[in-house]
Amino acid sequence: MMSTKPLYSFRFEHFQMEIPYTTYTLHLYPPWTYIISYGSGLFYMFLILIIFPFLSSKLSTQAKNSFAKIHHTLLFVYSFISFISTLYYLLDTNEIRNWSKFLCSPIPSWLRLISITFTLSKIWEWLDTAILIWKGYSLSKIGFLHIYHHATTFLLFLCAMNFPGAEKSGMLLNGFVHTLMYYHFAFRLPKFLRPLITTLQIVQLLTVTYVWHIVPSSCPADQHFPKKNFVEFLLPYLIVPVYSLFFFKFFIEQYLLSPSTVKTESSSNKKE
Length: 272
Prior knowledge:
mainly alpha, 3-stranded antiparallel β-sheet, 12 helices
């Protein structure tokens, strides 16, 4: 029987996900759970070290520029759809005014479909790095934040989907930030608005981490998650503070220490 609140449970020992609007449940066990999670980061490194540089020599400048424009435009549109869909759901269910329901109520099938694609879009975003490499940027110029971010966000969102509150927060806040960010990459925002993107990045990271932290103490269904699934619960605490630290560093260097000069777009060119 199809569920109106599809099951999602990412554990390294057993990954279960009901596919919305079907009777099929995906089951994965080790080593596949490790391959799709940790392995995704290793595959990303392989792409940026070998495949993307190789393709750079095979593509014309016009092809690279056209690809970048289409890629950023599509991610802008997709991010907006994810954000506005989540906002609509929160308004329609009144969860936007009911903190307990926001944190604890599982999402319906139609929104789970968007959530699944949102997590998969973290792999799509690897092409951000390809575009920078094709523009002639070295990995050192692209920077640690960009590379670390892209290598770990897919794993992060696999974990975040375990908690309804974190799942909704990710689509809502990250979707909104990415709407602004990819609009900027595709069409350019006014210079004075660029610090806003980094500020919102930091705010959404801190907010979603707070939501992740309080769900077990706020939602009976998840109260035993930290003890039973310690590694899965710990991972966001290991990943997100690194993002936050380097976003703070980026913001200070770009907008406080030298406000008159906005350095290369590479450093800002991705972030969550």
